[in-house]
């Protein structure tokens, strides 16, 4: 199971100042208008952007602060974005096995883990296909399996359903909801359906600052800004 996450992030070049605290296994949704700093926040957590101030702790380990920057490859943080970004020269199963092996599993164990994940995301039997032979929804399922096969301590989801059609997005939400159990996760989305399907708690980020946070349905029931009110009304 992923551990507790305590993160305070200040990225001055994008004017993002946010404090996030998650319990083990919690799923937190972050919503905000375009340009609010959501992707910059994820970049700071994943290590793609250095912190100007603040810190990132996972399980009591200091991952980053203004003086220390742990490279993304050493953070044990998974990231799934709008595009699957699978390795095109590898099969679906090999993509997952690569992640498992990178996480410390042996080669044989990685193959077994890949087969298990192919089944868990509903694609058993398609392990020999290359990314170019998969649909968009299938590719995102493989990308999710690859991210989770590495057993990250924190998983970041950045609009993972936005490139899919309505039916594929709805199906993938169900897969993600079933597979995230026990994994501490932050999901960024413009869609309240994503937050409602996946998250325990909700943060509104506006102009680089958190304007409201708390249990998801409590926040949606009492929106504190015009943007939050518009999101709540779209349910």
Automatic annotation (TrEMBL):
GO terms for molecular function: ATP binding; ATP hydrolysis activity. Residues 5-232 form the ABC transporter domain. Pfam families: ABC_tran (PF00005). SUPFAM superfamilies: P-loop containing nucleoside triphosphate hydrolases. Keywords: ATP-binding, Nucleotide-binding, Transport. It comes from the Bacteria. This is Molybdenum transport ATP-binding protein ModC (TC 3.A.1.8.1). It comes from Microbacterium esteraromaticum.
């Amino acid at each position: 199971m992923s551990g507790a996450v305590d993160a305070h992030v200040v990225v001055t070049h994008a004017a993002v100042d946010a404090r996030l605290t998650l319990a083990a296994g919690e799923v937190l949704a972050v919503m905000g208008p375009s340009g609010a700093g959501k992707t910059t926040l994820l970049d700071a957590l994943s290590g793609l952007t250095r912190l100007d101030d603040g810190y990132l702790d996972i399980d009591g380990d200091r991952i980053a602060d203004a003086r220390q920057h742990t490279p993304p490859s050493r953070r044990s943080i998974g990231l799934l974005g709008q595009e699957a970004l699978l390795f095109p020269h590898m099969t679906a199963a090999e993509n997952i096995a690569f992640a498992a092996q990178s996480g410390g599993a042996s080669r044989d164990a990685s193959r077994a883990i890949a087969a298990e994940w192919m089944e868990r995301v509903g694609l058993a039997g398609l392990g020999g296909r290359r990314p170019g032979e998969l649909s968009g929804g299938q590719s995102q399922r493989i990308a999710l399996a690859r991210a989770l096969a590495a057993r990250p301590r924190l998983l970041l989801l950045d609009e993972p359903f936005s490139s899919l059609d309505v039916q594929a997005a709805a199906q993938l939400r169900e897969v993600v909801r079933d597979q995230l159990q026990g994994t501490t996760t932050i999901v960024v989305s413009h869609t309240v359906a994503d937050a409602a399907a996946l998250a325990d708690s909700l943060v509104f980020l506006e102009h680089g600052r958190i304007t409201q946070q708390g249990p998801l349905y409590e926040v949606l029931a009492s929106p504190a800004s015009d943007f939050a009110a518009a999101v709540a009304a779209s349910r």
